[in-house]
Amino acid sequence: MVRVLTLELPMKHVPGLLALLLSAPAVRADQPTPAPPSDLTDYVLKADPAFVWKLAAKTETDAGTAYTLDLTSQTWHDITWTHKLQIFLPKGAKPTATVVLWNQGGRPGPQSEFLGLTIAGKVGAPVCFLYGVPNQPLFGGKTEDALIAETFVRYLETKDGSWPLLFPMVKSVVRAMDAVQAFAKEEWKHEVTGFVVTGASKRGWTSWLTAATGDKRVKAIAPLVIDTLNMPVQMKNQVRAFGKPSLEIKDYTDRGLVPIPDTPEARKLWTMIDPYVYRDRVTVPKMIINGANDPYWPLDALNSYWDDLKGEKYVLYVPNAGHDLRETDAAGKKQLIPERAVNTLSVFCKCMIFDKPMPQMTWKFGEKGPVCAVAATPDTKPAEARLWGADNPTRDFRPARWAAKSVKVYEDEGKQYAVGIAIKPDEGFHAAFAELDFKLDDLTFPLSTQIRILDAAK
Questions:
Q1: Most exposed among 11, 114, 249, 315, judged by the fewest C-beta atoms under 10 Å?
Q2: CATH for 32-284, among 3.40.50.1820, 3.40.50.620, 3.40.50.300, 3.30.70.1060?
């Protein structure tokens, strides 16, 4: 049974509880910062005459207009990378100076077109979907992580800094920005100057690294389900939580890439492709969205890098959801689309595009005996607040079931405090995080705090 305890605290006790929370030390990553190498920008900025695009189709729907572009982004190790690039303009909306650019694998289809038009409608601005990131299969039928691992091994063997697959993936996003800008001038007679770059998993990884290039057109990023920044620390945490590396990263363990080999080449490789290394460069606003039951990452992976991120930052945990962010109910039925994630992503993009303020929220955890309190302090009153909790015999929370209880929002000297209380379990582990709902126009969307994992009460 999940034990999420909600207490209605008398107002006189709130200042003392807040004092406890404000005195609690923050969890910080203890990892030295190597100097970021130039291999990423050297590859991305290198001129490539293969770049070309053309408008292939224009389709009118009840939800808006979908344009399809054929794009060639580059030639990488004698392989020409081609992509479909769809631009969705929702009905009744006008082109904007900043647009959303979602990078993903595969090709266009009804589901991706529905998602693109849905997000565009919620944002009220153009949304672009770049497909074929990466181009695959390659090298004997390898795809996805097996393909990335192959290119890492080739780098270690050759020391050629153009081999890591993330680099051409980033370049395809940069070339997509070039194509969208040219398309907008030609089709809409409109200038696009900025992008909110987003994507999931290795495409979220690509979003981080696109911002790391320093391209000023990247106004914000929204990396989804890529909770692995600060990789040397994360690999140790993964073994601590799961007992061994996740089976989801088997492609890397099978090639001897995890744990990270103790060689100069391997140490350089992780500094080339770990977004954590570039954190001083990535100062744009960032919206991080993770599934609380993602089989790839330890539950508290965010805590290994959150405090070291620069600039505006927000996080959303989706409870009872894995790598696809679609929530599963108690009966095992999964959502058709990841509604929680889509709403928060859409609001973030809308705020970045139309210069609207995102709710600002800070939080503190404080422990005293068996009690753990979390106080979230937003700058605007939330519509609702709740504390999510889950119990598990080990630190591996992938199979855990999350449950929520409403928490009260206090007001003291003009400030809002959503205070939730979790109790350490008698055995095993308990995890908790607070979630607050906000409203923007006709959209309700949640934001989260970090997660705290509590050991059994001693």
A1: 11
A2: 3.40.50.1820
Q: Are 288 and 447 in contact (CB under 8 A)?
A: no
Q: For the chain, which residues make up each domain, given as ranges?
A: 32-284
d(CA 397, CA 405) in angstroms, rounded, equals 19
Residue 12's alpha-carbon distances to 376, 410, 412, in angstroms, are 18, 11, 10
Q: Are 419 and 429 in contact (CB under 8 A)?
A: no
CB-CB contact of 378 with 436 (8 Å):
yes
Count of CB atoms situated within 10 Å of the CB of 77:
12
Q: What is the pLDDT of residues 350-375, one digit of tens each?
A: 999 999 999 999 999 999 999 999 99
Name the residue among 283, 316, 166, 305 with its Cα closest to residue 229: 305
CB atoms within 10 A of CB 241: 21
Least Cα distance to 112 among 183, 185, 200 occurs for 200
How far apart are alpha carbons 451 and 384 in whole angstroms?
19
Instruction: Tokens 């697959």: give the residue.
Output: 165
Instruction: For the full predicted model, state whether its pTM sits above 0.90.
Output: yes
Rounded to 5 degrees, what angle do the CA atoms 386, 424, 241 make? Answer: 90
What is the C-alpha separation between 340 and 338, in angstroms, rounded? 6
Integer Cα distance of 61 and 53 in angstroms: 24
Residues in a beta bridge with 99: 195
